[in-house]
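hey m, so remember when u said the tokens were messed up on ur end? i reran from scratch. heres the input so u can diff it against urs
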Amino acid sequence: MVLPGALTNVSIRLIGARPPPRGPRAGTRPGPRVELPHRAARPTSVRAMRAIQIAELTGPDTALRFVEIPEPEPSHPLSPPGEEAVVVEVHAAGVSFPELLQTRGQYQFRPPLPFVPGSEVGGTVHSAPAGSGLEPGDRVAAFTALGAFAETAVAPAFFTFKLPDALDFAQGAGLVLNYHTAYFALRTRGRLTEGETVLVHGAAGGVGTAALQVARGLGARTIAVVSSDAKERVAREAGADEVVRSDGPWKDEVKALVGGGVDLVIDPVGGDRFTDSLRSLRERGRVVVVGFTGGSIPEVRVNRLLLGNTEVIGAGWGAYAMPKPAFNREVGAAIDRLIERGYVKPLIGARFAFEDAASALKCIDAREATGKVVLDVREG
């Protein structure tokens, strides 16, 4: 089954040109168009939408195309058999590291080209299945898996959550992937309990800021690892109790701060700091591996685990969560409680116009991003 967003395009424009206008504009000159081979006519009731596709695996500068394609049908391969998906009118789309990797063919999930990337949106419900608890017009945050870089997207009902009044659409686009990952890594896999101390690498990024906020909401003390003054400010805004620098003797500083070591390390970075993460643990401490934005995958000398009575734990949120509707609803409810108590409030960093998706990806590639990077798909 083809995931939403893996659609054949009707018309194509190179990213970097102005996008197709939303309505008539006097004096607007259309950009170059590429005529595709003839395709069967579609029913006139099928509306076209603007979207961004990955058309080749050449990196963010050249891989993207602005297109007009048919709106998706209300179905999703992750939905239970026979259940329609939620159709969302997208106001904001989250931009994450996996989309950058997908432009180079380096992500483990490789849909056939061309496809619409993007996995999370903030928007309003256009239609929803009966019994979902959702109605047209509801403000929602949703995980789409694919297809988020478009004016309309589809998501399973169990991955679509009403957006609290305290959050806007951009924050909704930064809610599901990062905060569900953080909760899963901290509580489900990391077994975090109240009063423990958590060290967070990449603490100014999307997952890092989410982990700081969720950890504090779960009653933990938090220590952030960052690389600059600007990122330190972001980490403190996200709730870090202490901040150390990645280019300094952070491991020794951490052990001095907590008197021996931390209980839990959340590591979405990997790379050469991994060994010092193990050394920063106290007895029975755990390092939870979330990703490898640093570019290299570290290796573990298991004798360190033996001698220190410590653990390395994998936290692959997607593989675990996607087939478990009830689990996702439970985590969504837990995140809602943390929002109500004031702990969770996604930090939005760089915001880009819809047609500037390449710039958004290059911001992540250059490690300039703090908080959540967002595309503004619709006005308002």
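this time it looks ok to me. Residues 325-340 form the longest helix (16 residues). if urs says something different then somethings off w ur setup not the seq
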